[in-house]
Amino acid sequence: MLGNGKKNIGFESNLFTNKSDATPVYDADAVLYFNRVTANGGTLSTTQKNAVNTMVLTFKTTSAWSKTLAFYPFLGLSAATCAINLKSTSYNGIFYGGWLFQDAGVKPNGTNAYFSTTIAGYPELVNEKYISMCTYVNEFIQYPRAQMGAIGANNTWNIIAPKLDSSTVGRYVATGNNVATTVTDALAIKGFLAVSRISLANFRYYKSNVGTLATLTAGAGGYIYPNVMGAFGGYAGIIGNFDTARIAFGQIGNGLTDTEMISVANAVNTYTLALGRQ
Amino acid sequence: MIGYKLTITQKDIIQQKEFAPKECFFCVLDINNIWFTILTPEQETIILDTEYSWVLGLPEAEYVPPPYVPPF
């Protein structure tokens, strides 16, 4: 109810009206996101709005907000609403192939489905090779599929995956570096997964479900083709390695520092917990 | 997984075309080099009311993916 006694039947306002108005004060960017979801035919619950608002406020406690190009909360139960970028009106994604739009997130069919962020390292990023990206998946990633990323040319790529050579040797993530390591839980990976390049030589990889933080020395990352979720972009933009894991949240942007990515991880974990998406 | 079989011409007509806001077809080759598109029941309901409703009349078959080729 608005302060003038008229019902607010459509778009949100972040302005308080009077003491009897129970509408909470939301962050202005959160309100703009809510309005975009409404404009695309979606309906958000108070729980969902509160979860988004809390997440935005947490992002804004560091530079993660300003360095990120797109946050995808995947709300509204349709492609039109789940594709919406929380951060701005740019970089709304596109769903290709078979997807389900569920309360717990967006679920690809593992056969022909991927979500294009429309964001390639070049020209979208400040420095084409300094990228950060994360997803929160609440189902196990399937071998040998990938969760997110893109391949460039000349042996360059950014991928969140388990890419396995065997049941015990492979990579959780490949970011321009194809050195295999010992893998102990590659068939049980879910939760917050992220990678961020914070210097020319180093990526950091995050896998919060087991609380690990790995630093990978790497060469160039892939930056020619748009990064996708639910699969990854292959050479010449060919999409492959389709996964089935349901995605509860996604982010992509410029490289984040360790402090910034931990902030994102904490915010995303709080968001998925609030929505029962873990 | 069951999908719709397409000729190359049919694939070219729908590949990456939008049938609903922010929702597009994506066609993939099977083990026999035949083009398929796979849709959810919800997507089929949407497509019924679009210019692409003819896709739902195409022959259906089990989609068998080609052998996995490591990307790197």
Map the helices and strands:
The complex is a heterodimer of chains A (278) and B (72).
Chain A lengths: L27 H12 L6 H14 L4 H4 E5 L6 H4 L11 E3 L2 E4 L2 E4 L5 E3 L4 H4 L6 E7 L10 E4 L5 E8 L4 E6 L6 E2 L8 E7 L4 E6 L4 E6 L10 E2 L2 E2 L5 E2 L6 E8 L3 H17 L4
Antiparallel strand pairs in A: 1-17, 2-5, 3-4, 5-14, 6-11, 6-17, 7-8, 7-14, 8-9, 9-10, 11-12, 12-13, 15-16
Chain B lengths: L1 E5 L1 H7 L3 E3 L2 E2 L2 E3 L5 E3 L3 H7 L12 E3 L10
Antiparallel strand pairs in B: 1-5, 1-6, 2-3, 4-5
Explain briefly what this protein structure is.
The complex is a heterodimer of chains A (278) and B (72). Chain A is of the alpha+beta class and 278 residues long.
Rounded to an integer, what's the Rg of chain B over CA atoms? 13 Å
The chain pair with the largest interface is: A-B, 35 and 26 residues
The tally of domains of chain B stands at: 1
CATH topology call of chain A? Jelly Rolls
What does this structure look like?
The complex is a heterodimer of chains A (278) and B (72). In chain A, helix 1 crosses helix 2 and helix 2 packs antiparallel against helix 6. Chain A is 20% helix and 28% strand. Chain A has 278 residues and is of the alpha+beta class. Chain A has a single domain, classed as Jelly Rolls, CATH 2.60.120. Chain B is globular, with a radius of gyration of 13 Å. Chain B has one domain. Chain B is α+β, with helices and mostly antiparallel strands. The model of chain B has no long low-confidence stretch (mean pLDDT 94). The chains are: A alpha+beta (278), B alpha+beta (72). Chains A and B meet through helix 4, strand 2, strand 3 and strand 16 of A and strand 3 of B.
Descriptive labels:
heterodimer, A: 278 residues, alpha+beta, Jelly Rolls, 7-stranded antiparallel beta sheet, 6-stranded antiparallel beta sheet, 6 helices, 17 strands, 28% strand, disordered N terminus, B: 72 residues, 4-stranded antiparallel beta sheet, two-stranded antiparallel ribbon, 2 helices, 6 strands, globular
